[in-house]
Each structure stands twice: as structure tokens, then as C-alpha cells.
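tool=predict chain=A
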Amino acid sequence: MDRHSVVQESFVLDAGCLDSGAPLFVRGDIRVCNTNGSGAGGDGTRPVLLISHGFKGFKDWGFFPYAASRFAEEGYYTVTYNFSCNGVGESDFDELDKFGLNTFSREQADLKLVLRRLLDKQLPFAEQADTNRIYLVGHSWGGAGGIVFAAEHPEIRALVTWNGSAWADLFDAAFKVQVEQDGVGYVANARTKQEMPIRASFFEDLERNGERYDIVKRLAELAIPVLQVQGDQDSPRLRAGFEALREGAPQHPIAVIEGGTHTFGAVHPFQGTTPHLEEALLATLQFLNKQAGR
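tool=predict ok
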């Protein structure tokens, strides 16, 4: 299908403010296909696909716009968004002060805000969204967040994780000690060469919500259809996490992408699709189309 048949409109949601008073926003994009009959139901509505980026990710990173357009071409009402403290405002990591204050709970609240606006028909092209068929795809840390969110929101009818994390805590014990001692630690962004801050609130949030954010346990509890898509050339830690998720919740199907890296070979700025990305997209579409009754 001609990609020009996909139309896109942006939205901005008020996500409250930080303790300092600095305002927070969830910025997102809706994509739908304007070709008649492209996956729409008899009432003209389309199943909804929420797409969550991961840690050090954002809605316009690498494959996300391409993937969202592909899903839209296949008849989905696709929603991509930047979490309010992901560090990206108007450009690439221009809000590192907010990035340093991000927490797992804040992203859960942001996703709840998106869902509420969707259900209230307050997002662009709202008349095309079938809110009885809402699915979620989460990459990396966004996959972990998707598991928790789906466990707590029955509106989510199916979930796909792409190289999803098995742990809400991304860091080792030494890094946590450093943050506790200094009040802040830094992680390198190899692409932008920025030192990205992590503050104590990140770990305090996890300690307050230990059982709630037990990702393996929450996945095991999920009764909705879940597909885990995993590249076998992902990092050792994430591959170990995938095994923990698979063993903890063996009832959920998996799709292993042989040769697939953490981003399925895609880079930022986007240089085009890859065979591994196409394999992940195909597996996801086959799974979601089944849930959508196609």
C-alpha cells in the first residue's frame, strides 16, 4: 500500500507538573490510513495500537515512525507518544533535567492519561478508534511498563513486547550506591555523547512499588493474549530477562528473531528497514490480526 495514504496528526496532553512547578506534557502522534476499507470495520472504526518506547527512547526514534505507519497501513489506529520525562521536548534530548526525574510510576501515569483521552474521544481522528479493541506494543523498558499497565487496565485486550525488560530496575547495585551517595548518577548516550542523569527518585519509586513492579509475576498473572518478540542477539542481560519471563509465564507465546539485535538492526536517524525488523513486524501483525478477528 502507498505510504502516502497514511495521515498523521499530533497531540499534546497536559501531564501536570514537577515539584518545581515545571510543566509536563505527553506529546504524541496519531496515524491512520485514509484509504477506504483499509482494515476498518463496518462502522468505520479501527483497532487501536498504543506503542511505548523504552529507556533512552522517544516516539520519533529510529523505527517507531516507520512501524507506526506500517501498522496504520494494515488498518490500525496507531498512537505513539513521548513519556513526559523521557528527556525529549521539542528536539533530541533537550530536557535532560526532566529525564533525571523520570520514574516507572510516572510513565504508568502518562500511559493512563493517553488511555483516558482515547476513551473520552479526545485524540485526533477519534471517530476511527475502536475502543473495544485496544492493544499495546512496548519496546524494551516500554515492554516492562506495558506488562504492568495491561495487568491493571482491562481496556488493554492484547500485548506485544519487543525485546522487553524483565525488570523495572535497569541498573546494578554499584550504580544505585553511587546515586544514593551523590544524589545523582550518569549513564552515557553513545549516540548523542550526552551524560544522562538518574536521580534517587528513580530507585525510591521502585522500592515503594516492589511487588507491583515484579514484571515476571505480573506477566504470569496476565490472562489476555501476550506475544514476546525477542532478538537472539540482544544484550546478555535482556536475553537473560527474556528467559526469566518465558520460564515464569510459559503460557504466553514467543517469537525469536534469529540474528535480531535490541533494535532489530534499525538505527537512528532511520536508514530504512531491515529483515529482522520486518520479521518482528510480521510476527506482531499476525498475532494482533488474530486478536482483532481478521
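The mean pLDDT is 95. The beta strands are 6-17, 23-33, 46-52, 77-82, 129-139, 156-162, 184-188, 195-199, 226-231, 254-257.
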